[in-house]
Amino acid sequence: MVDKIPSAAGGNATAFFGIMTLSKKGESIMNIADRIQNLRKTKGISQEELADKVGVTRQAVSKWESEQSTPDIEKIIIMSDYFEVTTDYLLKGIEPKTEETKKKPDTGIFSIVGTALNFIGLMVAIMIWHEKRVDSSVTVGLIIMAMGCMSFALGQIMGAGETRVKAKEYFWRINLWILVFIPLSLCFNKLDGFFGGYVGLTAPYPLLGNSLITYGLCWLVYFGICIAGDLILIKRGKVL
Fold first, then answer.
1. Does the predicted TM-score (pTM) go above 0.70?
2. What pLDDT sits at residue 27?
3. What's the CA gap between 155 and 113, in Å, rounded?
4. For the chain, how many structural domains are there in total?
5. Domain containing 200: what range?
């Protein structure tokens, strides 16, 4: 461990914590700026929200995270209480070795399983409809997809806190395209049938009914919703 300690005490204590570099076994390789940013993102809050909790400006939080300045001891204590971590973790990256922490699984695993189930649900619904043309194809598909969403939700509850934010972001960026497909197809098929003077079929994908124009419009709406949703998620991820 290498500690660079300023000659002056008191007000220079903050500088001490900011330039402290730790590499001992069991201690984080991140610096204090990285740990504050990681904890904030894990909590799912913005710099402005953290600033309100700690009692500083958003610019102050931004400077902490960009290593332009470091928080004083009072702010460290407030943040350790708010993030439910020790001051040792914030200052030095020393994590308590508890059995509970060791046993928490990666949230990403639950998200991957959830994504797989959602995709399988969509494919099963399409295959059943293609082979048998029965309304139950949609029901079966939605049940499997509900299981996929439950897997994701379980991961957000049981998974390791530091992996939740990223797993959540990637889950929705991918699954938005899957989860929107069947509901949008049902709405299109029913509306297309209504305006076309026939009973719309309960199919898990858009059917070519009245015209190529309405059919194309359905796909345009689908891509519009999914692309807009992904852009919002990406922008929100950058803010957080």
1. no
2. 44
3. 10
4. 2
5. 106-239
